[in-house]
Amino acid sequence: MSETTSTNVENKHLLNGRRAIPPNYSNDEENEVPEMEAFGLIPRGFNPRDYLSVVDIYMFKEPHEINKQEHHTDKYYNPKLIVRRGQAFQIQIEFNRPYKPESDQFWLEFLMGRYPQQNKGTYIPILVGNVLKPGQWGAKIIHRENNSIRLSIMSSTTCIIGKFRLYVAVLTPFGIFRTRRNSATDTYILFNPWCQLDAVYLDDEKEREEYVLNDVGIVFHGNVEDVKSRSWSYGQFEENVLDACLFLMDKAELELSGRGNPIKICRVASAVINSRDDNGVIAGSWNNTYDYGVAPSAWTGSVDILLEYYSSKQPVRYGQCWVFAGVFNTFLRCLGIPARLITNYSSAHDNNANLRMDFFLDDEGKVDTRLTKDSICGKTEILAQQNQWQVVDGTPQETSDGMYRCGPASVQAIKHGHVCFQFDAPFVYAEVNSDIFYTRMEKNGTQVVENIDTTRIGQLIVTKEVGGDGMVDITEEYKFREGSDEERLALETAVMYGVKKQSIQDTTYQPQTDVDMDFQAQKAVLGNDFKVTITFRNKSRNSYTATTYFSGNIVFYTGVTKSEFKKHSFSAKLEPSSSSSFDIVIKSSEYMSDLLEQASFHFFVTARINETGKILAVQKAIMLEIPTLRIKTKGELVAGKETSVIVEFTNPLKQTLENVILRLEGPGLLRTIKKQFGRIPMNSTLTWEVKFTPMRPGLRKLIASLNSDALRHVYGELNVQIQKP
């Protein structure tokens, strides 16, 4: 076979003999489909009307009609037919005369993209037969009346996901006649978690309702001792969101033929959600300046972000972990892949691919932030594959195959230490299984391990409960109980597969065992002073003195330090067999000017026992209590009838809030509304009334956020029951 190249195609898509057509990346692009394909010269006097021809096609595409009801797609605000693969759907064809099966021949054609090909799954001809086989393309007539026939059509369970164009072709002795291009008959085909033969099948109806059909979720943040939650609007059914999600796959240049594989889709989506290397959906920002964009904490959901990206084709500014995770979840649920957002408290980012996180202490015993590069954080997302949860991350920290993405990695494989599996399992294993080493750098460059904490990383992994707003602890799905035989075996398995574990025997480490140090903090309210207490317990009969260093840091929610706002050192006298406590007051004036997105502090206390030279170390993360928005409704809540919602906020700070912006949204209730308020003086209350018309009955959620120069992460939410008219 001779190879040819085409000069009229861009160089990057040079054609050769092995590839007859250019790559097919775009679901939106189309080819010209001839309305008539003649078999030769057409005789004079030939009249197409003498033969069977199509007058109209009825798609049963309204939300209340059979297709969207049976395929669980009635919630999509989209006028076109949306069905799930591997499940029959119906259409009705009206001809110019009654259909005669013995002499008439017609078939259906589903096409996708600019270069439809049967072997790529982008050109699907369907002949009418007598039986439908499960999981295979086919069509059969289920009703005939006058000039109309009703067809039941089965799609393949491995069919590619996206928007297909539909044509009906009729065979005549002189050629093939097709229906005109009609966008009203376009058909979206999605993944089907209700179908046993689909790779994304989920066998529990309540879980399907939660992980596919619920358009609101909960993001858990804060820290292990003080878990906080807020709602996030996924909005996967809102207008244009489905098209925006399909555009993401075009942007990621995923070949159309690969779009039937949920793992491939997750892999490219993980890369395209973040904009670090491919002009993706969201630009991340962790430096507390959000010029020409929206602060991450101001977003109330995914819809605005996806629609802005779909129209501008430019990264939307700005996001942080929970924003990436929320948008990723919307993308997956929209396409029919069951997904849930999880939070990994004290998640490690293992810079060195070994199972340890290093906090470096300087020669005085204080934490040296220049050398300490691993962070403790985490928001991750998950999808199901044959009832096996897989972990995928929309905010990947490491490059994978040269792209910033992470996952999917099987949760079961991670739990058992089987980190040989694709993709990125060693990284995820380290995220939930590392130990913290407090390491002191000697002047000659040697590292001395002063303290080891084996329980802090991955100490709590949570997600929203099915069917409610509560929290479920899923830590045991990821790891065995610390110190158990199973945990040791999983660790040895991970080490066997090449994940490095530095054991305590590798390092010179003798801890101080007869003195304990503990750290407690008073409840801290934003804008107020609060107190922290360091307690020593000397269990020995010796007197000791401890040179103690206290460091208060304002941190990004990821655990990465932004700035040290308080330093304090003192000498503690430790009497034999007794406890001693020391209080330190944190003043609001010390932290307010530097405060960040989630109002998080990270306190380090290190103490050197002077008599032995040993070091004690403890760290604690603290979240400030932030005031909330109050939301209430006025009047009765009936679908199709105008009502109003009132949002109120009282400024608790000892300063005026400048550049205040409020956002309000509710999936299925109202699209995001923004309002700018110049300023709110201290102790004064802002009131905002919004009129809206709820479209659908049922339980819905209103979510509001407030953002200003000095105060962020202010939220409010309200569950509302919309009555039937």
Automatic annotation (TrEMBL):
One of its GO terms (molecular function) is protein-glutamine gamma-glutamyltransferase activity. One of its GO terms (cellular component) is extracellular region. Ca(2+) binds at N433, D435, E482, E487. It comes from the Eukaryota. InterPro entries: Ig-like_fold, Ig_E-set, Papain-like_cys_pep_sf, Transglutaminase, Transglutaminase-like, Transglutaminase-like_sf, Transglutaminase_animal, Transglutaminase_AS. GO terms for biological process: blood coagulation, fibrin clot formation. Its EC number is 2.3.2.13. Keywords: Acetylation, Acyltransferase, Blood coagulation, Calcium, Cytoplasm, Hemostasis, Metal-binding, Secreted, Transferase, Zymogen. Residues 313-396 form the Transglutaminase-like domain. Binds 1 Ca(2+) ion per subunit. Residues 1-29 are annotated as: Disordered. The keyword RNA-binding does not apply. Its cofactor is Ca(2+). PROSITE patterns: TRANSGLUTAMINASES. It catalyses: L-glutaminyl-[protein] + L-lysyl-[protein] = [protein]-L-lysyl-N(6)-5-L-glutamyl-[protein] + NH4(+). It is an enzyme of class 2 (transferase). It is found in: Cytoplasm; Secreted. Belongs to the transglutaminase superfamily. Transglutaminase family. Tetramer of two A chains (F13A1) and two B (F13B) chains. Factor XIII is activated by thrombin and calcium ion to a transglutaminase that catalyzes the formation of gamma-glutamyl-epsilon-lysine cross-links between fibrin chains, thus stabilizing the fibrin clot. Also cross-link alpha-2-plasmin inhibitor, or fibronectin, to the alpha chains of fibrin. This is Coagulation factor XIII A chain. It comes from Vidua macroura. The lineage of its organism: Eukaryota, Metazoa, Chordata, Craniata, Vertebrata.
